[in-house]
Design brief:
With 98 residues, this protein is mainly alpha-helical. Helices cover 70% and strands 0% of the residues. α1 packs antiparallel against α3. The radius of gyration is 18 Å and the shape is elongated.
């Protein structure tokens, strides 16, 4: 839906990740408010564990497919330690020009 709304590829990826995190947090909040929170929380906690694996896979595939601001041809370590947000890159260019 974010693609249909006219968002860019990196923005679509951000919306997907954020939506996934909010849904699991909401499910855990509801489970902890139930009469037997320990038992009810088992499903959201399992879902969050699966979410970690799925989001890691989704993020890596999206990065290599060109859906992020980071270039696909750089190393994984370089991608993790460098900020590729457009605003940050503009600020960095201004600082180096001065």
């Amino acid at each position: 839906m974010s693609w249909a709304a006219g968002l860019t590829k990196p923005q679509c990826m951000s919306v997907g990740i954020e939506t996934c995190y909010q849904n699991t947090a909401l499910a855990l909040s509801v489970a902890l408010a139930s009469p037997s929170p320990a038992r009810a929380a088992a499903v959201p906690v399992f879902y969050q564990a699966v979410q970690v694996v799925c989001l890691l896979t989704f993020s890596l595939v999206s990065w290599k497919s060109g859906w992020t601001y980071a270039p696909a041809e750089i190393s994984l370590w370089r991608m993790i330690v460098t900020n590729y947000q457009p605003f940050f890159m503009q600020e960095t260019e201004l600082v180096t020009q001065e």
